[in-house]
Amino acid sequence: MNEETETIDEFLTRRAADVEDAIRAAAAAEILPRFRCLTAADVDQKSGPHDLVTDADRLAEKRLTEALGALLPGSVVVGEEAVHANPATYEAIRGDLPVWIVDPVDGTRQFVHGDDGFCTLVALAHRGVVLASWTYAAARGRLATAVRGRGAFLDGERLSAGAPAAGRDLVVATSHPDYTTEAQKRALRPLWTDGVAPRPCGSAGLEYLAVARGELDAVAFSWEAAWDHAAGLLLVEEAGGTHLTRSGEPFRIGGGNALPFTAARDTATAHRLTELLSTVAV
């Protein structure tokens, strides 16, 4: 471990609680006061009718960008809304500086509809490796955390994904059809087979948490946006699970992955799903 990485490791030892406080504060100030109180003027579309953004997304990301950057001088922030405004911002994930990867409201559609199935996702990565993550389900008052090599926790209790029970169908949350192209639907179609029970995903962050808790066997997704995946992938890893792309390699947050990919409770499940996914030419 080089000196710069050791500095980040020391930061996580000393200031992880400050990161949690910053996330809770952003949610308390910008997200929860707007939950079930949005007006039509508070909601906009980005790329289409299912791709929504609200004032809560924008303002929470702004607050987190300021707070997280101040906590770790020399770091940069890559947030979903900042990348939407300036796609070049995403390149920082592939750079040499520590990077905070932020999705202020993961599950914006649920948030807009008054459903509590949304969360705030924050990950800290360096040179393509996710080192720590925070998944905060503000409306449910639950916080999941993970630090590489130190385990995954939900409200302070260690998570263990375990293995699926033998003899039952694998329950897999897949990319929602409202957000997938025909080609992406075709790539996921092999999961509709004996022994697998696919269903559309909700908030990606909460689906990853369900895998880490052993409540869901796996996810299978067809898009790469790091803000949706970085926090959850580390959470699943530290709970004992694994992630693989259809080529059999781990998912890389910097991009260039063979899609779709899966994150699963255990290695056997991940391999079974990637074998299915690799049967369709993409």
TrEMBL record:
Essential cofactor(s): Mg(2+)
Positions that bind Mg(2+): E80, D103, D106, D228
Molecular function in Gene Ontology: inositol monophosphate 1-phosphatase activity; metal ion binding
Keywords in alphabetical order: Hydrolase, Magnesium, Metal-binding
Reactions the enzyme catalyzes: a myo-inositol phosphate + H2O = myo-inositol + phosphate
EC number: 3.1.3.25
A Gene Ontology biological process term: signal transduction
Domain of life (superkingdom): Bacteria
UniProt-recorded name of the protein: inositol-phosphate phosphatase
Organism: Streptomyces misionensis
Source species taxonomy: Bacteria, Bacillati, Actinomycetota, Actinomycetes, Kitasatosporales
